[in-house]
Structures are given as structure tokens and as C-alpha cells.
Amino acid sequence: MGTIIHLSTSKGTTTVTTVTTPSTSTTAPASTATSNAGLAVVAVAAGKKYFGSATDNPELTDTAYVAELSNSKDFNQLTPGNSMKWDATEPTRGTFTFSGGDAVVALAQKNGQLVTTVSGTINCRAGSLPEASIMLPLPASFRTIVGPSSAITKDRYSWDVINVYTTKAQVDLEPFNDDGTWRTHVFYNTMGTSYVAVALQAARAADPAAKLYINDYNIEGTGAKSTAMVNLVKSLKAAGVPIDGIGVQAHLIVGSVPSTLQANLKQFTALGVEVAITELDIRMTLPSTDALLAQQKKDYQTVIAACKAVVGCIGVTIWDYTDKNLNKKPAYDGIVAGFTS
């Protein structure tokens, strides 16, 4: 049985590695979990569509890791962590490759798992597209990414159309700064705010059946950035631009889960869109201690319970499930409790 939790986040946080020592006691030590309920099993029983994990291609050569990733009782959904971003699918302009994303999708298909994609339209390597011609490549590139040349569309549920920074350029391409102002980058500087609508419309034309998301970080609690996202969704809907969901990334810190998380999820769903927790991890400062692991367990329970309480919160994806020490952590029990309590 695999371990929950966790890997370092895409924002460069520290990997949590905990060594569990043997115990002669009949009571599980504080550094291990006790539940075998199945994370996806309890999520679906709570009315959610999925509980899943992100993964990345270098990890798929690890047989022990893949065995747990393929355990659909824990994970009935997979997200390609980086292999569907623009720098991975179009490393040079006009040259497309889908082998990385297709490998993750093939694994999901084999296991009967849902696919949500961290992709696509606004994830490019900064500077790889000339600013003067930036409006033209958006529809063409997205049409190619989700078109017949890729297996991705077969079992995908959603596309994160406006999404996280790229892995090579380290440039944030989400819409807003933390203070709610528009973030400046090559797309905004060239197209103004219209790049969001252009991207979503191109995605809808390319794949009419998929749910289209804007995926962002630091919108877990209420505040200026979340308010800006609410106003953006309102304006998109008023203009007839397709938008189906908001992805709340939830790269959090032990002991610092926003108290307004549930209320914030509700304010998004009140706009007529669904919401998902798309990249959940709750990091701690090393070395780990029993106290930190206990708090992490509590924090996972809090986040999961908030999603459970909001009807339009459809599921949760953790930002990869393992620290490579294949023993379940207390966070596993916290997730189960969040869905079942």
C-alpha cells in the first residue's frame, strides 16, 4: 500500500521525507496511518467525482510507485504534472510531441482512471512565441494539442486552459497577482485581458466536450485575488465565453489552511461553475515530527471536509502522492476522515 503524503510542489517547496521505524507496539505509531478505506472509494461515496494524483513521466519507471498510482481504490483520476504543458508539447514552434502526455493517459486508460489535464493554451515557454503573432498560435496550437494526433482527448474530463507557470522559464502566467491586479506577461502585454477569452474560445472549438478550467494558486481563501477571479468569471459568463470550472491549486503550509476555504469554494460555485482542488499538498519544515504529522493530518481533513461540504466541488487531486517512503502517513487518515465525518 502506498504512502500519503507528499512530494515537493511545482512552486519549489521542500520534499517531506519521513522514516518510519519498526515498532513492537500493537498501536500504530504516530508516523503511520491506520485506514485502508481507499481514498477514491470514500470520495465517491461522499458524492465526489474523483480523488486522484498528479504524476510525471520520470516516475513511471518506478514499479512500486506505479503499482500504488494504479490502485484505483485510492486514485480514480490522474493528472499529467508537466507533460501536457506547452513547453513539453511544442518544444519548438510548430513541432509537436505528445508522447509524455499519452504515456500518462495510457496508464489511466489501463486502470480505468479519469484524466484531468494540466495543459495547454497559456502554458508556453516565455519568449518562445513572437509577441506580434501571439494571437494566431493560440487556437492553432490548442487545436493540435487536443486533436487527432493525441490520445489525450479519449478519457480526459477537463482542460486547465489558463494555468500554472512553465517548468523552464519560471514565469507565472495565471491571470492575477496576489493583490488582484492583472499579472503582466507576454500574453497580457500583447493582448490585454482578451487573452483569457481567446484561449477559452479556442479550447471550446478544439474540444467541445471537455470542461474548461482556469487553474490558479493563492485563491484558497477569500481575499483580493479570489475576488478578482470571481469578477473575471462573471465577466466571461456575461460575454458568453465558455468557462466551466475554477481549479484551486491549494499548495498549502502545515498549520496555515485558510479559515475561509469552504466559503470561498461556495462563492465560486455560486457563479454557476464547478470547482476542484487541483494540486493539493500541505508542506512542512523538516525534520518532520509527530506533532507536525498530526497537524498535517488535521489540515488534510479540513481541506477535504470543505470540498465535501460544497456540492459543486467535484474532486481533489494531490500533487503526487508519495515521498518515496512507501508507508502511509497520518495524512491518509485525515483525508478519509474529511470525506467520512
Provide a descriptive summary of the structure in words.
This protein is α/β, with parallel strands linked by helices. 33% of the residues lie in helices and 15% in strands. It has helices spanning 39-45, 63-69, 86-89, 99-111, 137-145, 186-191, 194-206, 224-238, 261-269, 290-309, 330-340, and strands at 50-55, 77-80, 114-118, 156-162, 211-216, 245-248, 251-253, 274-283, 313-318. The protein has an 8-stranded parallel β-barrel, surrounded by 5 helices. The longest helix is centred in the C-terminal third of the chain and has 20 residues, at 290-309. The protein is globular and about 55 Å long. The protein starts with 38 loop residues before the first helix and ends with a helix. Mean pLDDT is 81; it is low at 5-29, 120-141 and 147-151.
First-last Cα distance? 23 Å
Number of helices: 11
Strand order of the largest sheet: 1-2-3-4-5-6-8-9
Radius of gyration equals 19 Å
Low-confidence runs: 5-29, 120-141, 147-151
How much is the average pLDDT? 81
Shape: globular
Number of strands: 9
Give the structural class.
alpha/beta
Largest sheet: 8 strands, parallel, barrel
Percent strand equals 5-15%
Q: Tell me the helix content.
A: 25-40%
Question: Which sequence of SSEs, written as H and E, runs from N to C?
Answer: HEHEHHEHEHHEHEEHEHEH
